[in-house]
Amino acid sequence: MLPTSLREWLGPIAVLAALVVALLGIVYAGHKAPGGVDAWLVDPTADAVGAPWRSVALAIDFLGEPAGAAALIAIAVLGCLLLRRPRAAVFVVAGVGLTVVVGTLLKSVVGRTIHGEDNLSYPSGHTAFAAALTLAVALVAAGRLGLAKPAGLSLVLGAALVAGALMGWAQVALSAHYTTDVIGGWCTALAVVPATAWLTDHLAERKPRAGF
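Now predict its structure.
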């Protein structure tokens, strides 16, 4: 699941992303207001867009809600199964699932809130989900197409960046998250998914001996 041509790059990138997540979590732990970066980029206390862009933001946001997310995962898994890649299907579900779990745990640990004590905001779960799903699918595509380092890395990071940016824009536009929450969510996916790909490959390699 982790193409050989990309391992030497995605490993350090995943570590760097994890450090960014940790750093932002430390900086904004327990905060109940936007930081300087958040306030400078956009007013996080009110919806940043009006019609018709608000409808676009709501449509994108729906894709990160349970119903929309389940539909996207089902499509990705079905695609993997139609291509006779069951391990890829497992990887997609595991990569996205672990990203969501890690993001949820981080919210409780960091304790940053927006619009009230109960609205934990760091990192953005919607952004983490969108980036994780796209990153996982892009890794599967890069491996199947046998893309070399430049093309493969461009596909994987480019797809994750576009998906994360779109979902992140929607979250900030709807005043659901601060900008730094979005960055944290994107980096969470970038840290977890490559690690999940490596673990999936490692378990598959041990299957003849360990019975996995």
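The first helix runs from residue 4 to 27.
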